[in-house]
TrEMBL record:
This is UTP--glucose-1-phosphate uridylyltransferase. Residues 10-267 form the Nucleotidyl transferase domain. It comes from the Bacteria. It comes from Oceanococcus atlanticus. NCBIfam families: galU. Transmembrane segments: none annotated. One of its GO terms (molecular function) is UTP:glucose-1-phosphate uridylyltransferase activity.
């Protein structure tokens, strides 16, 4: 039971990162030396995805260019003998993996973005990955962990993470009944509840494995929180028909839709980078000592 198709909703305007995102997609912001969308794509491929579906808007050409071949650049690298860099460049999109791009005509929310993928997904189960949520899996990528749960239980799976109770208003929050190690059955889901109204502190994060049935439900789902078509509202309706599981993944999530989360991700990934991890760690140590001395 392998998920062959992965959907990437990348039509957002990235207003929190203006002016950096005025002319470039927020998903192309780099974490050290790779854009956010590359980490998301690598995660999908690690879980078996072969067809990548990008839901885009009119300012996202940089994403299309990133996953296209650049023959002139490859030729230049080959001529200069930069074989390692050339290999990395060619591995951006491995052989056997294809891309499809679909325009979201109007910004109507995540649920609408997923609905736009219906022509490409068809009647298959599929995954949805939000590049803003960069997840550093401990032993294996988050979606690969979810794939194992999907293979065992044969039903929809949503990644969740415990958040401080006072922050439930930022997320979709689930009410669950535990059934296994890190796996629970979702009994209810609420979009951005106030802390006093939240059924738990288990928050939905940007990883989903969904059945094609979700498209029909989304098609009849009205606008919810923020005046947008919410994916969580459609999942709440789907609970009336089938089991949906919540999975607490192993790993660290960075909210790269926020400036602080983005900076934290760059520091953490920089400290693991094979080229300069030790130098970077030394720099941060010296910088911390310098700031402490100024206090």
């Amino acid at each position: 039971m392998r998920i062959r198709k992965a959907v990437f909703p990348v039509a957002g305007l990235g207003t929190r990162f203006l002016p950096a995102t005025k002319a470039s997609a927020k998903e192309m912001l780099p974490i050290v030396d790779k854009p956010l969308i590359q980490y998301a794509v690598n995660e999908a491929i690690s879980a078996g995805a072969e067809e990548l579906v990008f839901i885009t808007s009119n300012n996202k050409n940089s994403i299309l260019d990133h996953f296209d071949r650049s023959y002139e650049l490859e030729h230049t690298l080959e001529q200069k003998g930069k074989t390692d860099t050339l290999r990395e460049l060619r591995e951006v999109l491995p052989i056997g993996v294809s891309c499809m791009y679909i325009r979201q005509p109007e910004a109507m929310g995540l649920g609408h973005a997923v609905l736009c993928a219906q022509p490409a997904v068809g009647d298959e189960d599929f995954s949805v990955i939000l590049a803003d949520d960069l997840i550093d899996g401990k032993l294996r990528p988050c979606l690969a962990q979810m794939q194992r749960v999907y293979a065992e239980y044969g039903t929809a799976v949503i990644a969740v993470q415990r958040v401080p109770p006072e922050e439930t208003y930022k997320y979709g929050i689930v009410d669950v009944e535990p059934i296994g190690n890190g796996v629970s059955e979702i009994k209810g889901i609420v979009e951005k509840p106030k802390p006093e109204e939240a059924p738990s502190n288990l928050a939905v994060v940007g990883r989903y494995i969904l059945p094609p049935r979700i498209f029909k439900i989304l098609g009849s789902t009205g606008r919810g929180a923020g005046g947008e078509i919410q994916l969580t509202d459609a999942i709440a309706k789907m609970l009336e028909e089938q089991t949906v599981l919540a999975f607490e993944f192993e790993g660290t999530r960075f909210d790269c839709g926020s400036k602080l989360g983005y900076l934290q991700a760059n520091v953490e990934f920089g400290l693991k980078h094979p080229e300069f991890a030790d130098e970077f760690k030394s720099y941060l140590s010296d910088l911390t000592n310098t700031w402490d001395a100024k206090k």
